[in-house]
Amino acid sequence: MFGNILVFLLETVLGLLTFLFVLRFLMQWTRTSFHNPLGQMTVALTDFLVKPTRRWVPSVKKVDVSTLVLALAVQWLLFLILPLLMGFAPMVTAALWQAVIGVLKQVLDVFFYAILLMAILSWINPYHAIYGVLQQLASPILDPLRRLLPAIQGFDFSALVALLLIQIVSRFILPSLAGGLL
Predict the structure, then answer these.
(1) In whole angstroms, what is the distance from residue 89 CA to residue 66 CA?
(2) Contact call for residues 63 and 28 (beta carbons, < 8 A)
(3) Are 133 and 149 in contact (CB under 8 A)?
(4) Helix axes 65-85, 2-29, angle to 10 degrees
(5) Per-residue pLDDT averaged across 84-90, rounded?
(6) pTM above 0.85?
(7) Which residues contact 102 (CB under 8 A, 6 or more apart)?
(8) Which among 45, 52, 56, 85 counts the fewest CB atoms within 10 Å?
């Protein structure tokens, strides 16, 4: 029982940390402003590792790669520790592959939650301060879909289609990649 609690806590804490690193990376990549509560919270919770990592992981074409490297490192650490807690020896390359899949899943989760919250806020309060942040964060997914799917009777179905596609990739394609290549 204690082992299950420890596994749960590790997965939760390291999963949230990975989510924050991915969120920070995607906010930088999409040029989303950090002058909002979400951006400030993300920076405050991740700066303790991002600042030292930037010293040895350079940016590539104005993209802060250090946050992505940290997300991958945290996921790799998780997949190295979990087998040890269950009494098995970790496989380093398998753990690295699982870490890559884990980071990709977190990227999809960030987009999923941004689009979902944006859709909900568009019904409740589209003038909320966070709405613009979510819209800018979700634009790499929604903009191509909006070009393909015109609005029908004034309704934009791109968010619904994006949520369905993200779930298909997250629930079916990524697990098959993780299981099939290990």
Answers:
(1) 29
(2) yes
(3) no
(4) 170
(5) 87
(6) yes
(7) 18, 75, 78, 79
(8) 56
